[in-house]
Design goal:
single chain, 500 residues, 3-stranded antiparallel beta sheet, globular
């Protein structure tokens, strides 16, 4: 191995491709060069979070806070009255928006599924690239190898790229010992740039040769038929459909109250809300895994924003801005839900921080975003993305307010507050009832105790705001453990047929 140092560049030469440790797995080591940031963030700076919060945005936020503060000091009653009605209008709109998506998603779940497929001869299968970015995941390499080996697609037409960090020797060694399908390649992500999943994915995208491409997380257990069904949907869809999002579901090796809440959220999000959003051709907040793409369309979009810690949500918004579409893929991928607060809190904070980053990028030039997506989709972005940010910020204060009112004879929640409280819980409970997934005692307990879970979202939101200011590009990695059992099939809503 040879090192050479240049100004603004660091070159690693590993030599040519060779086989490591067992005869079925090919590991590729190429020449890697870090030249500048643009290698890892091909987007224009306007569409990337590389520059963070702009000076104009800071100015707007500061002026708004100052105006509210001055008004509160000079006209406290009028300000409180006005703010109460503003919050009522915003949160009532968010509740109605969620109700609309739940009803649409539930209607689609109840509709009879249509079996669709594309008959292909052995030589007609296009090359499908599977990319998995992993860091410090040595313990999951065998599980990942087994999961990818079960995918129902000709191995000579499937390109598997494992994207590993150059200094992660444990994972590299474990990957070399695992029995991955023939043709699997390791790509070592060069040093430099942010150490984030999208940075690794962008590097993999440069080397992908498949006509189609799918992203999996290292702990994922996708349905074996998922690639075949995704290809069928792509073939039956127009070129404007550039991405499919498979349904994500939890099947935990460590059950618990937090894990049950997380699993229920996933059932609602990917079983109802995403379904309703995609069917209505609205901007979709993609999940971080089981996204299937037309590879060339993804390259034209600029890949992922390496400086955004929820690159999936950001990419979903950019697909909408480009006038293209995301559709759901009614085929499941199983994941593990975080079972402890120590794991759950950093993960949820990272998601919320990434949502903030995505919203801030979109709102750098709101008029341009409005022109790109149109008024209806612009409102949908504010309701879906803005609501996902705004609601967690207020869960804890509202919970404390309800407790204070319950303990005092002098305080009253009022008609506005009571309407929001009852409406919010009723819509949430309706979504939990309609969501696909197994009916278990833990799920029922999660439904009934959901108000105890919401304040935790506020803690994650406050941590996200702090992290955005102090460590905007830090990726809070979620630790995973290998599972000992296969996932159990869902008893409801688990049809693996492509969606209409």
């Amino acid at each position: 191995m040879k090192y050479s140092f240049r100004k603004h560049a660091f070159l690693l030469e590993f030599g040519s491709t060779h086989i490591v440790n067992h005869k079925h797995t090919v590991f590729e080591r190429k020449q890697f060069t870090r030249i500048n940031v643009s290698d890892f963030a091909p987007l224009s700076r306007d569409h990337s979070f590389l520059d963070g919060i702009t000076a104009r945005q800071r100015c707007v936020f500061n002026r708004l806070a100052t105006a509210i503060g001055v008004s509160g000091l000079c006209f406290p009653s009028i300000t409180a009255f006005g703010l109460s009605w503003v919050f009522f209008a915003i949160f009532a709109s968010l509740i109605l928006w969620r109700l609309f998506l739940i009803l649409v998603g539930a209607a689609i779940q109840l509709a009879p599924s249509r079996t669709t497929g594309v008959a292909m001869s052995a030589g007609e299968h296009p090359t499908y690239t599977v990319m998995v970015a992993a860091y410090q995941e040595a313990g999951l390499m065998e599980q990942l190898a087994r999961a990818l080996s079960k995918l129902d697609w000709p191995q000579n037409r499937m390109e598997i790229l494992l994207l590993l960090e150059a200094d992660d020797l444990d994972t590299r060694n474990a990957a070399s010992r695992a029995k991955f399908p023939s043709g699997t390649k390791i790509l070592l992500v060069p040093p430099g740039g942010p150490r984030t999943k999208p940075n690794a994915l962008n590097y993999g995208l440069k080397h992908a040769s498949g006509e189609y491409l799918v992203i999996y997380d290292v702990e994922d257990l996708p349905a074996p038929s998922q690639i075949k069904k995704a290809h069928a949907v792509f073939e039956l869809s127009g070129p404007a459909t550039v991405c499919l999002q498979a349904r994500l579901a939890a099947d935990n090796i460590k059950p618990g109250w937090l894990a049950a809440q997380w699993a229920l959220e996933y059932d609602v999000q990917f079983g109802l809300l995403l379904t309703g959003t995609a069917i209505c051709r609205l901007p979709v907040l993609l999940g971080g895994t089981s996204n299937h793409f037309r590879t060339q369309a993804l390259r034209k979009l600029g890949g992922w924003d390496a400086w955004n810690v929820t690159e999936d949500a950001d990419l979903g918004m950019r697909i909408a801005r480009s006038g293209q579409a995301v559709r759901r893929l009614n085929c499941v991928t199983y994941e593990d839900a975080p079972a402890s607060l120590k794991v759950w809190l950093p993960q949820r904070s990272r998601w919320l921080k990434g949502y903030l980053q995505t919203w801030l990028v979109l709102m750098r030039r709101p008029r341009e975003t409005l022109r790109n997506v149109g008024l209806g989709r612009f409102i949908a972005i504010q309701a879906s993305l803005g609501g996902a940010i705004l609601a967690p910020l207020f869960h804890l204060p509202l919970a404390l307010l309800v407790i204070a009112i319950s303990a005092s004879d002098d305080l009253d929640l009022g008609l506005i507050g009571m309407s929001l409280l009852i409406g919010g819980y009723a819509v949430s409970f309706l979504g939990d009832l309609c969501a696909p997934g197994r009916w278990t005692r833990s799920r029922l307990a999660a439904m009934l105790t959901k108000p105890l879970y919401w304040p935790l979202l506020s803690l994650a939101a406050y941590r996200a705001v702090w992290a955005l200011a102090e460590r905007p590009y830090f990726w809070a990695k979620t630790p995973h453990e290998p599972r000992l059992t296969e996932p159990r099939p869902c008893s409801t809503g688990s049809s693996a047929q492509p969606s209409p």
